[in-house]
């Protein structure tokens, strides 16, 4: 088996543990079972993130080595990152309906359809965040970081909008409700009372 085949199998196995849901769980990452039982919950979260980031970085490095012609990290650009993201789509598990599909925009389709499976936007967004950090941790300069390029940001935005419409899901973050301005109200009432007292004294 050549390196390309083994790479494909590695990606397929890493995706097999992921479930499809409307909360947009990461389709690329698999659960990490290497966390020590004695670590705290905060330490476990950090360990899972670091382990996943290392796996993602190794996967991208393997992709560069399998590239034709092979690519060095120093010559990697935003265009190569986009190529990598599109390559990962073949291992996606999120159904993205086409505009001609009767379930287009339906968050819970009542029946199967032949629409393609893709990597969920949230998966790609989280992946790019990890790779962007790993690039700089491995000696890359922030100003040359291909994972932070404008082309990559625009691509992620395009994927988010397309999947939001196709799946009938909003990816907008919920705005936190601001607490009522009690202090302002109390200070204002105090000022009003003071003015009232001034009038009475006059």
Describe the structure.
This protein has 202 residues and is mainly α. Helix content is 52%, strand content 2%. It contains six helices and two strands, in the order αααββααα. The chain has helices at 3-15, 41-66, 78-88, 121-137, 150-167, 182-201; strands at 94-95, 117-118. Strands 1-2 form a two-stranded antiparallel sheet. α2 crosses α4 (121-137) and α3 runs parallel beside α5 (150-167). The longest helix is centred in the first third of the chain and has 26 residues, at 41-66. The protein is globular, with a radius of gyration of 25 Å. Residues 48-175 form the ALOG domain. Residues 183-194 have a biased composition (Polar residues).
What's the topology here?
Blueprint (H helix, E strand, L loop, with lengths): L2 H13 L25 H26 L11 H11 L5 E2 L21 E2 L2 H17 L12 H18 L14 H20 L1
Antiparallel strand pairs: 1-2
Helix pairs in contact: 1-2, 2-4, 3-5, 4-5
Q: Percent of residues in beta strands?
A: under 5%
What is the global morphology?
Answer: globular
Topology order in helix (H) and strand (E) letters:
HHHEEHHH
Fraction of residues in H or I helices: 40-55%
Could you give the count of β-strands? Answer: 2
Strand order of the largest sheet: 1-2
Query: Overall pLDDT, averaged?
Result: 75
Largest sheet: 2 strands, antiparallel
């Amino acid at each position: 088996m050549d390196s390309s085949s083994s790479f494909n199998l590695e990606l397929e196995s890493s995706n097999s543990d992921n479930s499809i849901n409307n909360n947009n769980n990461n389709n690329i990452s698999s659960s990490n079972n290497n966390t020590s039982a004695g670590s705290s919950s905060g330490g476990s979260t950090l360990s899972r993130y670091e382990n996943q980031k290392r796996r993602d970085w190794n996967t991208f490095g393997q992709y560069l080595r399998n590239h034709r012609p092979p690519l060095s990290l120093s010559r990697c650009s935003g265009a190569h990152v986009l190529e990598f993201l599109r390559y990962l789509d073949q291992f996606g598990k999120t159904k993205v309906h086409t505009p001609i599909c009767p379930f287009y925009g339906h968050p819970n389709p009542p029946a199967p359809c032949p629409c393609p499976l893709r990597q969920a936007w949230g998966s790609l967004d989280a992946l790019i965040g990890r790779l962007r950090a790993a690039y700089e941790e491995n000696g890359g300069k922030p100003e040359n970081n291909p994972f932070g390029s404008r082309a990559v940001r625009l691509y992620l935005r395009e994927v988010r909008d397309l999947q939001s419409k196709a799946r009938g899901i909003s990816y907008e973050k919920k705005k936190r409700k601001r607490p009522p301005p009690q202090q302002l109200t109390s200070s204002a009432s105090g000022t009003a009372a003071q003015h009232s007292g001034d009038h009475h004294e006059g």
